[in-house]
Amino acid sequence: MLGNFNLGQFGKVLDDLGRLKEELRNLTVESEDGGVCITFNGLQEVQRVRIAPEAASNIGRLEATVANCFNRGSLKVRERVKEEAARLTGLNLPDIANLLNL
Q: By three-state DSSP, how is residue 3 classified?
């Protein structure tokens, strides 16, 4: 037994994680900054990128803003995945994104 987790629960947790991965396809997370908005699903796939025309006036700044938005969005997705996994399994799985190959 590891903490309050026993090996008998392992099969249920694997089933829950499989269900979670399917639910994550419908989860959306947005990251916005300086006229750039990137929408991700819960599998860390980019679903949409919106760039306001005024944000495109300085390419160097736009590139940095897109990178920043992407990185923050990826972090938000990982945090939401952790929350959803805890809700579904009742366990605190800190590195759940790696277990789901995200």
A: coil
Angle at 84 (CA atoms; ends 36, 70), nearest 5 degrees = 20
Q: Which of 44, 45, 41 is nearest to 26 (CA)?
A: 41
pLDDT digits (tens, 9 = 90+) for 30-39: 999 999 999 9
Q: Contacts from 76-80 at CB under 8 Å and sequence distance 24+?
A: 76/29, 76/31, 76/40, 77/27, 77/29, 77/40, 77/42, 77/44, 77/102, 78/44, 78/102, 80/27, 80/29, 80/42
Phi, psi of 4 (to 5 degrees): -100, 25
Q: Which residue has the tokens 């995945």?
A: 81
CATH class of 26-99: alpha beta
List the structure tokens of 39.
Answer: 């929408």
Confidence of residue 1 (pLDDT cuts 50, 70, 90): very low
- CA–CA separation, 70 vs 49, rounded Å? 10
